[in-house]
Design a protein that fits this description.
alpha/beta; TIM Barrel; ten-stranded parallel β-sheet; two-stranded antiparallel sheet; 14 helices; 12 strands; about 45% helix
């Protein structure tokens, strides 16, 4: 029997040194990939990816996700070529459209996100294919550029491009142009069915099928033998997202009334005290609707729900004891 596909997700809750140890442990336990976040202004994805790649030999290493606004397209391609030099055929470029208010606060105007993403993926893929590229679009202007490999491998690089999409228009574009979709977390498993339909519509435009598109999915996983402790860790996380990224929560069916109540308490960025006050408003059913939280059996069952609804590889974000979570899912989650 083949092992269930499973991956690890890291943001900034662990030091880089601890993250490197966790990735090595996940590799030992049969995890297929680690994805490093790049969201808030706290930790970029590239340095941790390089660190993880340097201390492992089999596990794939993905950006989960970097954005298509802040790196020049030439630098973006060179960055992923460099990572591939470090860990050949193990690097995945996960890229997303970023989010406001963070983008606007650093001077980025996220206009025409679909066109911007299409141009980015097109030029990035051609550059990683070591083509000489001239492209004059609305967002990218390059004139006869090519990745300048003097030392090292001069053949096209095998770096799959996955799009981190949430909205259905971006999901459809993902089905059309990408190697995979990084499905978001904090969504109800039923959300996946709408996402799959959009991916399939996009795939058909490109003469592909849904099976041609890998669909790993971020899943917040708060597991503890103390069920209440596990739920409260997830509740704290969900409360932050209710305040920061309500579009995610709304997509999962969280009521506008609850979102409004939370916004009465939270500012951006929210203080720890505000989050702890607001989390009192978030009931257990909302926590468990959008996360895999609770006892080991409960979290396995929830992860199976995401897989049954089209996720091909859960990317587990540990909120509690990360090694306990790796142990539990290293054994698989099939019935």
């Amino acid at each position: 029997m083949t092992q269930d596909r499973v991956a690890l997700y890291l943001q900034d809750a662990h030091s880089l040194q601890e993250g490197m140890q966790l990735v090595q442990y996940a590799e030992e336990k049969g995890f297929e990939a680690v994805w490093q976040a790049e969201s808030r202004l706290v930790r970029d994805a590239i340095v941790p990816m390089a660190a993880f790649a340097a201390v492992t030999s089999k596990i794939k290493v993905g950006s989960g996700v970097t954005n298509n606004w802040t790196r020049n397209i030439g630098l973006l391609a060179a960055t992923f070529l460099t990572l591939d030099d470090l860990a050949q055929d193990r690097i995945i470029c996960g890229i997303g459209a970023w989010w406001d208010p963070l983008a606007s606060k650093v001077g980025i105007q996220r206009r025409k996100p679909l066109l911007a993403m299409r141009e980015t993926v097109d030029v990035l893929r051609r550059l990683l294919n070591l083509e000489n590229v001239t492209f004059h679009g609305e967002f990218h202007h390059v004139d006869g550029i090519q990745l300048d490999v003097v030392y090292g491998r001069k053949e096209p690089r095998n770096v799959p491009i996955y799009i981190g999409a949430t909205g259905m228009k971006m999901m459809e574009l993902t089905g059309e142009i990408s190697d995979g979709a990084v499905l978001n977390y904090l969504v109800n498993p039923k959300y996946n069915l709408e996402a799959l339909a959009a991916l399939e519509r996009g795939a058909k435009k490109a003469g592909r099928s849904l099976d041609d598109i890998d669909r790993p999915q971020l899943v917040i996983c708060s597991v503890d033998n103390d069920r209440k402790k596990a739920l409260d860790k997830a509740r704290f996380m969900i409360t932050q997202y209710l305040g920061q990224q309500p579009h995610l929560m709304k997509a999962s069916g969280v009521s506008q009334e609850l979102l409004d109540d939370i916004h009465q308490i939270l500012t951006w960025p929210a203080t720890d005290e505000q989050i702890r006050e607001a989390m009192k408003l978030v009931p257990d059913d909302v926590v468990q609707m959008c996360t895999a939280s609770g006892s080991p059996e409960e979290v396995k069952a929830k992860v199976r729900e995401y897989v049954d609804n089209g996720c091909t590889c859960p990317i587990l974000y540990p909120l509690g004891d990360a090694r306990l979570m790796i142990d539990i899912f290293g054994e698989g989650y099939s019935r």
